Amino acid sequence: MTPGPTDPPQSTRAAVLIPFGIVTLIWGSTWLVIRDQIAVVPPSWSISYRFLVAGIAMAIYAGIKRESFKFDARGYAFAAVIGVALFTFNFNFVYRAEHYVTSGLVAVVFALLLVPNAIFGRIFLKQRLGRQLMVGCAVAMAGVALLFVNEARVDPHGPRSATIGIVLTLCGVMAASVANVIQGSAFAKRYPMAPTLAMAMLIGASLDAAFAWATTGPPVFEPRFGYVAGILYLGVFASALAFPLYFNVIRAIGPAKAAYSGVIVPVIAMLLSTIFERYHWSTLAVAGAILSGIGLVIALSARRPAR
């Protein structure tokens, strides 16, 4: 059915906006938790625990929905690609980036996910980028640029560490974009979401554990309440709940628009940092946050469908 002139744009319907908002709020809070996760335990072990919890939670959910775990060879390959790109490469790059730069700067750089998502979506999914979407993108990226300049100026690690952290984050961005675009394809819709993600998360957790053992030795675990609570929060809420919601948004409006969640995530991260880390807002940070919000509204209110 073709939308009529008075129909609301696809990206402003409640079925998209509600999960979009939930995902953005959850992921905006994860940066503080991730920072705490890498204090004692090697990053890859923390990532492995996170996705072991997430995979089990997704498998239980799939069992409750009585969705089948029977896949053909392509289905297993699809889950493996998602597991490798998103739950292994992406998160190993991001967790390590936080060793070199502040969580705020990592969150800001990760907002650039919008760019490869839009480019890959246009190339591989033939998704149109309407004028209003491009204007919103430009405004939002201007806001992200201001946030980046602000965070780079106050980052205490120095230029060499900042460069390493930014490069690692950009590698994570590219890995995440590959998974995002694959999830937006027609091929992905052949397989039920919950079992596929459960399998992808468990594959990712296994690879993370193998990499951790090879590079840092046997498992390390911190029996501290904050660490355990962080693993459960990241595994259940930030992964098992957030990723299915986010991938459904990608399938509804395309990877370019869905990536706008990453534009607002650093703003939320900095708001939380204001409360918990005494973050001080500069004029650049305020201007960047405002521009990011304006760009998001412009892009998501575009009436041209993503496809």
UniProtKB/TrEMBL annotation:
* Key words, A-Z: Membrane, Transmembrane, Transmembrane helix
- Looking at the UniProt entry, the stretches that span the membrane are 12-34, 46-64, 76-95, 101-121, 133-150, 162-182, 194-213, 225-246, 258-276, 282-302
Q: Where is this gene product found?
A: Membrane
What is the protein's membrane topology class?
A: Multi-pass membrane protein
| Domain EamA span(s) in chain numbering | 22-148, 164-299
Q: Please state which protein family the record places this protein in.
A: Belongs to the EamA transporter family.
This protein's species is Sphingomonas albertensis
Q: Identify this protein by name.
A: EamA family transporter
SUPFAM superfamilies, alphabetized: Multidrug resistance efflux transporter EmrE (SSF103481)
Keyword ATP-binding part of the UniProt annotation? no
Main subcellular localisation: membrane
Entry keyword annotation includes rRNA-binding: no
